[in-house]
Amino acid sequence: MATAGHDRPPTSEDGCIVTTCGRRIAVRRLRLAPADRPISRVTLDVGRDQGGEPGVWAALTSDEARDLARLLLLHAGLAERGTEPVVPTRGHSLSP
Q1: Cα torsion through 58, 93, 19, 55, rounded to 10
Q2: What is the strand order of the sheet 39-46 is part of?
Q3: Which residues are CB-contacts of 18 (< 8 A; sequence separation ≥ 6)?
Q4: Which of 4, 53, 74, 96 is buried most deeply by CB count within 10 Å?
């Protein structure tokens, strides 16, 4: 669970945050450069928790990263207001 408001630790300049439960979340760019077609992804690395449980890792396309960012912002706003999210139907996106 991430902290909110003034209690939240500052985001470090290396693209990482640490949640109140102790997980370090790193966001970075991954670039693979095969000769015929370079591949670029945004990586999300959710590290181990305080108890040592393993984290998760994902490589997202630019569009997937933007979709995730929109969902995170949507749900952050809903959490602040204490409201429930609107669940989109299949084939429809969440537009702010």
Answers
A1: -20
A2: 16-18, 24-32, 39-46, 56-60
A3: 9, 24, 25
A4: 74
What is the value of pTM for the model shown?
0.65
| pLDDT-derived band at 93, boundaries 50, 70, 90 | low
Distance CA 39, CA 33 (A): 6
The half-sphere exposure of 2 on its side-chain side, counting CA atoms within 13 A, is 18
For 11-55, write each residue's pLDDT tens digit.
Answer: 555 789 998 888 899 999 999 988 788 899 999 999 988 888 888
DSSP per-residue string spanning 65-87 = HHHHHHHHHHHHHHHHHT-PPPP
Q: Which residues does residue 29 pair with via DSSP β-bridges, in sequence order?
A: 42
The answer to whether the CB of 30 falls within 8 A of the CB of 43 is yes
3-state SS, residue 27 = strand
